[in-house]
Amino acid sequence: MDFFPSISLHLVLICLNTEQNRKGHNCNPNHVSSTMRRGTKVRVKGLVKAAKHNGKIGIVTKATAPGEGQRVGVKLQDGSGVLAVKIENLEEIKSSPRTTATVSKPKSASASTPASTLPKERTLKRDNALLREVDGSPDPNVLALYYHFADRAFDCFNASEYNVQMLRYYEKGLSVRLICPRMIGGNEYFLVGLQHAQHDKNSLCEVAFNCGRSFTGISMLVKKRCFVCHKPLPGNSQCPSCLCACFCTDSSCINRNSTIRSDHERLCKKIDLTKVVVEKESLQLLQ
Questions:
Q1: From start to end residue, where is composition biased (Low complexity) (predicted)?
Q2: What is the number of other CB atoms lying within 10 angstroms of the CB of residue 221?
Q3: Residue percentage of the chain with pLDDT more than 90
Q4: In this structure, what are the phi and psi dihedrals at residue 116, rounded to the nearest 5 degrees?
Q5: Which residue in 146, 239, 223, 152 sits closest to 187, CA to CA?
Q6: In angstroms, rounded to a whole number, what is the distance separating the alpha carbons of residues 60 and 278?
Q7: All domains of the chain, ordered by start, with CATH?
Q8: What are the tens digits of pLDDT across the range 252-264?
Q9: Neighbour tally for 264: CB within 10 Å
């Protein structure tokens, strides 16, 4: 996974400003653009030869697939790969109304400050549909929600990817500074926030905003599930040494997938809880 990255770009429904339109012809309201922008969240439909993928949800990763005509690349969220799909076989998933907030860093008191050095405003958006989708998926690949800055889209890590990415953060000078509990319905989560020691490298975080917490840096919303067998683990199930992972104590699970446990042990040694703000009060994200 790339070293990071709030919101998926939407399918644009437009009437092209063609010569025909300039001559007074009406736009077809059902016309769908022959292009689809990267980051659009879609649902696959109407496939015949690959009907098993119908109904699956994915993210557009490529505007066009070479040699496939009017097709786009779609990364399926169930981890089964990337499909080259015709636009007419894709349905945009529209988010529910979002709560927005415009934020900016305080401006300098000096009137002589160059305009180019003033902080730019950013608009963060609350996406409840995204939280419902994450909460409703039992897929082990949907364990930890994060924001991919390069793709400007939300995505999820599985346990192995989460461990690897956390280790990369530490290599790049970030470290865990915040852990707080969260709830979606009856399911428990925890928000992990990391910051760079150089404060000007930390920006407002989209995931934290969606979780009702103002935070500058990088954060991930992690399900309280065993990182090996993916069994729900409510209550005090986080690793007591770092609070950043969950493992069950079933003997059959302890002997499985030693790589995930060994990667966690490497990460666990790097996390200093004396420098972490650990909040106790949980917040319900969806009623």
A1: 99-118
A2: 25
A3: 43
A4: -70, -20
A5: 223
A6: 37
A7: 40-92 (2.30.30), 130-284 (no CATH)
A8: 888 776 789 889 9
A9: 25
- Rounded to an integer, what distance in angstroms lies between the CA atom of residue 226 and that of residue 133? 20
The letter for the amino acid at 159 is A
Strand partners, 125: 100
What does the longest C-alpha to C-alpha distance in the chain come to? 74
Model confidence pLDDT, tens digit, residues 129-173:
999 999 999 999 999 999 988 778 899 999 999 999 999 999 999
Between 239 and 125, the higher pLDDT residue: 239
154, 249, 137: which is closest to 208 by C-alpha?
Answer: 154
According to the model, what pLDDT value does residue 217 have? 94
| 23, burial (CB in 10 Å: exposed 0-12, middle 13-18, buried 19+) | exposed
Q: Residue 21's CB: how many other CB atoms inside 10 A?
A: 12
- Measured CA distances, 10 to 39, 46, 62, 188, 225 (Å): 7, 21, 14, 30, 31
Rounded distance, CA 230 to CA 180, Å?
21
* Mean of pLDDT over the chain: 78
Single-letter residue type at 283: L
For residue 19, what are its two tokens? 């010569």
Place of tokens 């069994």: 231
